[in-house]
Write a structure and sequence with these properties.
By secondary structure, this protein is of the alpha+beta class. It contains 21 helices and 21 strands. The strands form four sheets. Strands 12, 13, 14, 15, 16, 17, 18 and 21 form an eight-stranded mixed beta sheet that branches. Strands 3, 4, 5, 6, 7 and 8 form a six-stranded mixed beta sheet that branches.
Length: about 575
């Protein structure tokens, strides 16, 4: 398949608003592709070369891309910069030009060329990348060049996520969405959408329906529902298991000891990104585990070695750096508390009960001692009073609360249900939990904040069913002066010219500057209210929801935009207020 055919489909998708029509176009494109091409297209459509767990970064700044475009168009860099400022999009700068550049490159050839560009490193690599980008752009047509530029600088913006690709694969296979659940279940167990597409085309639905976990490919994490009280939880699920809820970094640990001399150990975040560089101090003890291969889940949390007290999440996040990690390890030592075992020695445990998975985890640690790697404690609770007392004890110890689990619950990858329920500290006049939102735009500052150029910002939640973001609050509190400066820098780095088509926002709320929905933040609010203006959870029959007195609490660097609070969760939290 020619790459120009792929980008002609992308160009058509870019011009339409209907998600159903997007799905049909993607299905048509995938239907025309080979197995390998389908794998590549699924990743490119999401603006990436590899799935998140095998990230391959281009590391090309806008300034370097402008140099490559200047070479291509044979104009000064200043001219490219001026036109980019006018268009708000470097892709459009090249799309409006004409040159004799269609060399008929295939999808596979372009993918290979992009991978070469991404792998240049070391001294002189920026110059190599600029020349390689120029060489590639010169061989393709202007529309293809537009999308190549956007992919390289991380601003593809086709307006959909992997969920829409799952719908498209269903349409490709059966002509409607009826195969969606089976394909999504396979993706939940083996979170590589390109791989799922390839297997579907190679081996058909039977292979997808029989998809199993693979060590080295993350399983999409199970998630917990919320209920406001111990009594509500016991009434919902009865006798259960309660585990302390730590305010740390949720990790999925994959161990492959096929090569005993060089064990392969990876740590994946809840948004499926490989974060192994953050945790070299955990590797030594994990290498000693007596396993052939393993997938486990745990919470890594920084503690104060002088007091033994756990530190807040924002301290743990300081581990998120690739340089001078040894110094960070000394300042922010970690402990890893394993709370689930999903795969061990070739056996998948997802369909085993919590009790069975717990027994396998404890058996693994029967003769294993470590000061760093531990199995989290748990307590069986039969009454609301027992659960309340255990909750109070954990709060007194400085923890967030509890995760309460059904004893016979199986592990449901990628699902949020009442098999797991969070019970968190409830402050007077506040929701029992923070809301994870994505920034959609910001408003120019007035008064004292005029100096910052930002005075408030607009946030939204995620509607998974429609694969879109819906406004839920306009926020102007919770930030100090330096926070406003940092927030504006982050927003300006992701500024876009107009409202994204996957954002629902009333015109009365339009911000002065639109921001690509990629920045995830934690928001605290007093309550959730019904709103005639905000779009969160809004339907033809019901008004939307909004946050009352919202306050900025920090960034969620461990969550992707598709893992933020959903419209259904907002509705549940609203109802919990009256429990």
């Amino acid at each position: 398949m020619k790459f120009s055919m792929v980008t002609s489909f992308f160009d058509e998708i870019e011009k339409i608003q209907s998600r159903l029509r997007m799905t049909e176009i993607l299905a048509d494109l995938l239907n025309k592709s080979s197995e390998r091409e389908a794998e590549i297209i699924c990743n490119l459509a999401l603006g990436q070369l590899n799935p998140a767990h095998r990230t391959l970064q281009f590391n090309i700044a806008t300034a370097q891309m402008m140099k490559a475009i200047a070479l291509l168009l044979e104009v000064p860099e200043a001219a490219v910069q001026e036109r980019a400022k006018q268009e708000g999009d470097l892709g459009l700068v090249v799309a409006q030009e004409r040159w004799h550049g269609d060399a008929g490159l295939t999808v596979v050839e372009v993918d290979a060329a992009l991978r070469v560009i991404a792998t240049f490193s070391g001294h002189g690599s920026q110059e190599q990348k600029i020349n390689a980008i120029y060489s590639l752009l010169k061989k393709v047509d202007p529309i293809s060049a537009k999308f190549i530029v956007r992919i390289i600088i991380g601003k593809l913006r086709l307006g959909f996520s992997d969920m829409t690709l799952i719908d498209a694969l269903s349409w490709m296979t059966v002509g409607d969405k009826s195969a969606r659940d089976a394909i999504e279940n396979a993706y939940n167990v083996c979170a590589d959408i390109g791989y799922i597409a390839r297997i579907l085309k190679q081996e058909g639905m039977a292979a997808v329906e029989d998809m199993h976990a693979h060590v080295g490919i993350p399983i999409r994490p199970a998630a917990a529902e919320r209920l406001p009280t111990a009594r509500a939880i016991i009434e919902k699920i009865g006798v259960s298991i309660a585990q302390p809820k730590l305010d740390g970094f949720r990790l999925q640990i994959h161990i492959n000891n096929a090569n005993a001399d060089a064990p392969d150990i990876h740590f994946y975040s809840r948004n499926l990104t490989d974060m192994s560089f953050m945790f070299p101090d955990l590797v030594a003890d994990l290498k000693k585990l007596p396993v052939t291969d393993m997938i486990a889940e745990g919470e890594a949390i920084v503690y104060d070695p002088h007091t033994g007290q756990f530190l807040p999440f924002q301290e743990t996040v300081k581990r998120k750096r690739k340089h001078d990690i040894e110094a960070v390890m000394a300042d922010f030592p970690l402990q890893l508390f394993l709370f689930d075992l999903l795969y061990i020695n070739g056996q998948e445990l997802l369909t085993k009960t919590h009790e069975e998975r717990r027994a396998a985890l404890l058996n693994l640690f029967k003769d294993f001692q470590s000061d760093v790697i531990k199995v989290i404690e748990e307590k069986k609770v039969e009454t609301a009073q027992e659960l309340e007392e255990y909750f109070t004890a954990n709060i007194a110890a400085g923890l967030e609360g509890l995760v309460v689990k059904k004893i016979d619950s199986v592990y449901r990858p990628g699902k949020r249900n009442f098999s797991w329920i969070k019970l968190k500290r409830q402050e007077e006049g506040h929701l029992e939990d923070t809301i994870d939102c994505v920034i959609l735009g910001y408003y120019a500052g007035e008064g004292k904040r005029a100096q910052f150029g930002i005075g408030a910002f607009l946030v939204g939640i995620y509607n998974a069913q429609e694969d879109r973001f819906e406004t839920v609050a306009k926020i102007g509190t919770g930030l100090k002066d330096h926070d406003w400066v940092e927030l504006k820098q982050k927003c300006d780095a992701n500024e876009i010219a107009e409202k994204p088509k996957n954002v629902v926002c009333a015109k009365e709320l339009y911000p002065d500057v639109w921001v690509d929905p990629v920045i995830v933040v934690m928001i605290r609010a007093d309550e959730i209210t019904i709103s005639p203006l905000h779009a969160a959870g809004k339907t033809a029959e019901n008004l939307g929801y909004a946050l009352r007195f919202p306050r900025f609490m920090g960034y969620r660097l461990d969550k992707s935009v598709h893992e933020i609070t959903t419209d259904q969760e907002i509705k549940q939290l609203y109802q919990n207020q009256f429990a």
